[in-house]
């Protein structure tokens, strides 16, 4: 059989069968061979006299409609395979990240438990120390953690793009730039945390709790730079798809925090301040544990080189001549400052909600509102870790695709991230509605608080959907370098719509704490709708060019 007859037969067989992903390369070669070996005609081609086919110039007819169907089928199969691969990768990465964030919630809870269950000699002292510990935690979260973690969100954008583009030495540049910037941030943050008592008194908090909170916060201060350093390294490893080190670090940190806290609170003269010292020790343990596990770990889903080779590339990129220039610092801050604003707008908004609970008319109603709000806020925060982990996973997958110039994968990654967020919110809504009673009894045995919290959880269940969508879409914004847009929309959602509406519903209209949560839900529904519209209309090729421009490399041209 002649070569042309053989090729035609192969193409006819391809048209009549379902093609798997492994056949794509072969079919592409066949198609290229066919195009090269014929003279173009609208309906067919005449074989050359000397191309090895029959010498009488036989006509090889094509079936344009069949070829179009085949092309559509191949395109559909390719998109389906890509969708499956991206969905699997996103979920595989999300599970350990979610686990890590859940583990990182535990130290704050353990701190409160250690203070609350210690023998202070009287109920009044126990309440005083509990209030002081809660105030100190709140102040450190708002001033130190939201600031530092927000600035370092620039690493999410930059590292994922660098991994996608296989520019691993760039991660060393970003590491050195980030360390220098966060050191300067800590210099400011440390002064603010050191003056916690003065700041709380300025905000008209009760004198004794504010004064004791200042002491508690100062014991927590030495652990903050270690948290920052751990956060930087974690963002680098998770960009590679390497999650074992951060899970191990979170587990060890919890063991250190709980063990040291129990000993210091109950068997030393530190008493309740031992809980703060233990929190610092737990924070200090994070980085060395992570580095040790990282040294012995070779697993890295998104990276094609070993950990040791990757580390060499990172170290080679840590040059002051490139990392400490105005251009490098400006690039980092242009992403980090809006990222900080995104985080702070959200965290501060819910502290304002807690404060508004205290001015609900009626002393008893205000006390019940404060207690029930604390219960449902903790439940919602626990569920939020699921959305946050999914957001980070989507951030990594999308950022990697943008950095590699894979526009199609980037588009699919953004859709998968949003779809997972929506699905998880519906699951969590079902959990809340099914186990309202059980969830509330985990926090208190007071029947009035339980009943109030149960009714409040109905609103919190509705809140899950926009909260999840907003969380994962912030991850999409971070991956594509659009933190500034996310910060602006967060400000509008929380401070232009959410909080004013929450106040109106809760106080003038008498809806109480339920009105506060309903107002915040409306605000988040607004931002979720706008974010979804923006993301669905995104030009991913342009965003990929922007990502690669941040790495100073060009996007391959379309063929």
TrEMBL record:
Provide the topology term for how it sits in the membrane.
Multi-pass membrane protein
Transmembrane region(s): 93-116, 128-152, 173-196, 216-233, 245-265, 340-361, 367-389, 410-435, 492-511, 517-536
Keyword annotations? Membrane, Transmembrane, Transmembrane helix
Q: Which Pfam families match?
A: MatE
| One cellular component (GO) term of this entry | membrane
Cell compartments where the protein resides: Membrane
What are the BP-aspect GO terms?
A: xenobiotic detoxification by transmembrane export across the plasma membrane
What superkingdom does the record give? Eukaryota
Q: Which InterPro entries match?
A: MATE_euk (IPR045069), MATE_fam (IPR002528)
One GO molecular-function annotation for this sequence? xenobiotic transmembrane transporter activity
Q: Which PANTHER family match?
A: MULTIDRUG RESISTANCE PROTEIN
Family, per entry: Belongs to the multi antimicrobial extrusion (MATE) (TC 2.A.66.1) family.
Q: Mind telling me what this protein is named?
A: Multidrug and toxin extrusion protein
Q: Record the organism.
A: Thalassiosira oceanica
């Amino acid at each position: 059989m002649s070569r042309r007859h053989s090729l035609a037969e192969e193409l006819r067989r391809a048209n009549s069968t379902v093609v798997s992903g492994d056949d794509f390369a072969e079919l592409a070669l066949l198609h290229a061979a066919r195009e090269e070996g014929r003279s173009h005609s609208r309906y067919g081609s005449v074989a050359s006299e000397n191309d090895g086919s029959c010498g009488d110039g036989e006509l090889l007819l094509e079936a344009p409609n069949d070829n179009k169907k085949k092309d559509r089928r191949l395109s559909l199969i390719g998109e389906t395979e890509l969708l499956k691969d991206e969905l699997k990768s996103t979920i595989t990465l999300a599970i350990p990240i979610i686990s890590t964030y859940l583990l990182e919630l535990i130290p704050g809870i353990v701190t409160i438990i250690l203070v609350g269950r210690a023998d202070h000699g009287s109920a009044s002292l126990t309440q005083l120390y509990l209030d002081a510990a809660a105030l100190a935690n709140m102040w450190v979260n708002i001033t130190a953690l939201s600031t530092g973690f927000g600035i370092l969100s620039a690493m999410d954008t930059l590292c994922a793009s660098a991994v996608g583009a296989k520019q691993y030495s760039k991660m060393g540049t970003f590491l050195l730039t980030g360390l220098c910037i966060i050191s300067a941030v800590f210099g400011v943050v440390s002064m603010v945390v050191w003056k916690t008592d003065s700041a709380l008194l300025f905000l008209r908090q009760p004198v004794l709790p504010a004064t004791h909170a200042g002491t508690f916060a100062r014991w927590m201060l030495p652990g903050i730079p270690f948290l920052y350093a751990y956060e930087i390294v974690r963002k680098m490893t998770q960009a590679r798809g390497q999650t074992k080190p951060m899970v191990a670090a979170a587990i060890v940190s919890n063991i250190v925090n709980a063990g040291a806290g129990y000993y210091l609170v109950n068997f030393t003269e530190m008493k309740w301040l031992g809980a703060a010292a233990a929190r610092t020790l737990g924070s200090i343990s994070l980085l060395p544990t992570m580095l040790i596990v990282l040294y012995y770990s070779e697993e890295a889903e998104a990276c094609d080189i070993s950990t040791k080779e990757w580390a060499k590339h990172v170290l080679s990129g840590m040059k002051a001549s490139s990392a400490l220039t105005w251009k490098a610092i400006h690039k980092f801050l242009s992403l980090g400052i809006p990222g900080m604003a995104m985080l702070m707008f959200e965290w501060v908004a819910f502290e304002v909600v807690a404060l508004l609970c205290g001015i609900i008319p009626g002393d008893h109603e205000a006390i019940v509102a404060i207690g029930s709000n604390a219960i449902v806020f903790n439940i919602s925060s626990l569920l939020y870790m699921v959305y946050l982990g999914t957001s980070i996973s989507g951030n990594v997958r999308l950022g990697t695709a943008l950095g590699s110039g894979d526009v199609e994968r980037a588009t699919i990654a953004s859709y998968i991230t949003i779809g997972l967020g929506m699905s998880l919110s519906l699951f969590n809504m079902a959990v809340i509605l099914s186990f309202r009673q059980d969830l509330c009894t985990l926090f208190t045995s007071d029947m009035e608080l339980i009943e109030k919290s149960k009714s409040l959880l109905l609103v919190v269940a509705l809140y899950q959907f926009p909260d999840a969508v907003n969380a994962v879409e912030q991850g999409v914004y971070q991956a594509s370098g659009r933190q500034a847009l996310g910060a602006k929309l967060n400000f509008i959602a929380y401070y232009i719509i959410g909080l004013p509406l929450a106040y109106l519903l809760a106080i003038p209209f008498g809806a109480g704490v339920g009105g506060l949560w309903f107002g915040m839900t409306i605000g988040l529904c607004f931002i979720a709708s706008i974010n979804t519209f923006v993301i669905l209309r995104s030009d991913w090729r342009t965003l990929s060019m922007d990502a690669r421009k941040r790495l100073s490399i060009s996007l391959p041209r379309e063929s």
